[in-house]
Amino acid sequence: MTAQNRLNGIDIDRLVATVQAIQADPNLARFRFRSHTDWVSGGNVKTRIQGFYGAGHEDTSRTAPFTLEGDEPSILLGTDKGPNAVEVVLHALASCLAVGFIYNAAARGIRVDALEFDIEGDLDLQGFLGLSEKARPGYEGIRVRYRVKADASQEKILELCDYVQKTSPVLDILRNPVPVKVSLEV
């Protein structure tokens, strides 16, 4: 592969081939991701993520699981061994927006030299603690601020930013209710 087939760390030929394969067989677009979480102690949990179903088959290419550790800050009675769940949501949003921006910039021939996000979310613990029916347990609002240095006009960058917002899975999950089925085994 030659250097001109890569942009922003993305293999353009593979990106185009993936899009063409999905256009030819939309079933290849169906994915199922999984995680397994064990409670450790207090607010501390460990999550393992490894296999998933995608592109028409079970993917076993990950030879070892990714392990994510979550906890609460000491002010919320935790031991600070990792970010808490709502902080991980901010990471997931930034990660998703970054991937969408970089991949789509590469597809459009835009070289990105730097991309940063600052994200803040406001939460009222009264909802989580069951102290108020008016306060929701989750974020009341989230603010995302991009900083981009790229070889494109501001107009092209704004257009790309708008497109990424329309196609971001995590942003969609946050903006639109998703059915969640919960079952309990005792």
Description:
This protein is an alpha+beta fold and 186 residues long. The protein is 33% helix and 27% strand. The protein is built from five helices and ten strands. The strands form four sheets. It has a three-stranded antiparallel sheet, with no helix packed on it. The longest helix has 23 residues, at 85-107.
Features of this protein?
3-stranded antiparallel beta sheet; about 190 residues; single chain; 5 helices; alpha+beta
Percent strand: 25-35%
Summed up, the helix count is 5
Global Rg: 20 Å
Average of pLDDT: 95
Number of DSSP strands? 10
* Coarse shape: globular
Helix content: 25-40%
Structural class: alpha+beta
Low-confidence stretches at least 5 residues in length (pLDDT < 50)? Answer: none
Distance between the termini: 54 Å
Read across the widest sheet, the strand sequence of neighbours is 3-6-7
Order of SSEs: EEHEEEEEEHEHEHH
Largest sheet: 3 strands, antiparallel
Oligomer class: single chain
